[in-house]
Here is the input.
Amino acid sequence: MFNKILIANRGEIALRIIRTCKEMGIKTVAIYSTADKESLHVRFADEAVCIGPPASSESYLNIPRIMAAVEITNSDAVHPGYGFLAENDKFAEICQQYGVKFIGPTAEMIRKMGDKVTAKETMIKAGVPVVPGSGGLVKDVQQGLKIAKGIGYPVMIKATAGGGGKGMRVVPGEEEFEALWNSAKQEAKAAFGNDGIYIEKFVEEPRHIEFQIIGDQFGRVIHLSERECSIQRRHQKLVEESPSPFLDQELRDKMGDAAVKAGKSINYEGVGTIEFLVDKHKNFYFMEMNTRIQVEHPVTEEVIDHDLIKEQIKVAAGIAISGKNYYPTMHAMECRINAEDPLNGFRPSPGKITSFHSAKGHGVRVDTHVYAGYSVPPFYDSMIAKLICKAQTREECIKKMQRALDEFVVEGIKTTVPFHKALMKNEAFRSGKFDTSFLNTFDFEQCVE
Ligand code: MV4
Here is the structure.
C-alpha cells in the first residue's frame, strides 16, 4: 500500500480523498494556490505545499510545480481527483516516468478514450452499441453532406476532441449543414487545437444514464450500477440519482454488460464511467467514457455501501477486486449546491459566506469544503457543497431531500438551493418522467428563497 499520497486538487474532492487516506493509514499532502490558503484541505492534510498564484495554469494545472511538490514531500502516489489534470495523459505519463503512481488509468487508456472517434471505434469492436454515424473522421463539407444524407436528418456534428458539448451542433436539415459544420470546426479548433469532426444520427429527447465501473490490474472489470444524470443545464449536471427511475432490471443488466465489455476492451484499470444516451424506446448507445472519479460518485457509494475512493486506491496499489457486480439496495440523490444565482442565468456568485448551516440527520450526507467565514474564490469551479440523501424508495428520498434543503442555510452569496427546492416540487420530476431537455423549459422564476 502507498505510504504518502499527494492530492493534486482542491475543494471538496481534496477533502474527500484526505478522509479516506486517513482511514487507510496513508499520509497525505495537499497542494494549494495562494487563493486557497484558508481552505480545509490545507488544514486537514498532514503536509501542505503552496504551489503558486490563483490562476489554475500557474497552480493546479502546472505539472512542473506539482512534480516539485511530489519530490520534496517524497510522495509515492498522486490522486488527481476530478477536473484539472485528472484526464491529462501527459501528467499520467510524467508520473509514471518519475516512478510515482498516478491513481487512475494509464496514459494510453486516457488518450484512447479522450479521442471520441477512437473511443467509438474501440466500442464498435467490443460489441458495445453506438449511435449510427460516419464511423470515423469526416474530411470536408462535401463528404459530410453525403454522409448526413445517408444517415438521415436531423444529424449531430461532433468534435473528436470534444466532450461536454463543446464543438457540437444539431443539424436539422441539408440547408443548415454547411454553416453549422464551419462553426463547429472553428469552435473545436479554438477549444482543443484539434478540428477533427465526425457525424452521428441525432437521438431525440435522450436520457443521460451512466454506469460506474472499476477494473483492477489483473483484467477484471465489474460495474457498480447506474446513475441517472439527465437533470442538467448547458451540460452542467445539477442533480444525479441512483437507481435511474427509467431502468428496469432487464435494461440494467443489458447496459451493465455493455459497460463491462467497454471496460474490458481496453483492459481498464481504476474507476471509470461509461456514459450512455438512452432513447424513449430503451435503445442505448455508448456516448463517452470518463477515466476519473466523478463529482457524483457519492450517489453510487450510498446505494451500494462502499467507499469508491478506497476501492480506487486499492486497485491502484495492485489489489484485486471481487468478481461480482453491485446493485442498488437503496435510493440516493445528490443536489449540487453551487455559488450561482438561479434567478440570473446561474451567474457565478463568489464572495464571503457570512453564515453556513449544513443539513444533517439520518440519511443525509454533505460533502463540502466551506464554512461560515469562508470566501468562495472567483477563480475555480463554483460548486461549494454536495447534498446527498438516501432512503428506501425514490419517494422517501425526495421527501428527505426537501427536508434537508429546508435546513440548508447559506448566507452572503447566492446558491442553487432555491432551484433544488423548486425542482423537488415539480410533478414531472417527482414522477420520474424527464430527459436531458427537461431544464430547457423549466421556469426558473420559481427559484425564490
Ligand atoms: C448526442 C445527443 C443526441 N444525439 N448525440 C452532449 C454532450 C456530449 N457528451 C454528447 N451530448 C449529446 N450527444 C447524439 N447522437 C444529445 C447530447 C446531449 C446531451 C447528452 C447528455 C446529457 C445532456 C445532453 C444535453 C444536450 C445534448
User: Anything to note?
Assistant: The domain at 207-447 is CATH 3.30.470.20 (D-amino Acid Aminotransferase; Chain A, domain 1). The pocket of MV4 is lined by residues 131, 156, 163-165, 200-203, 206, 208, 232, 235, 277, 287-288, 436 (CB under 6 Å). The first strand starts at residue 4 and ends at 7. The chain has a mean pLDDT of 97.
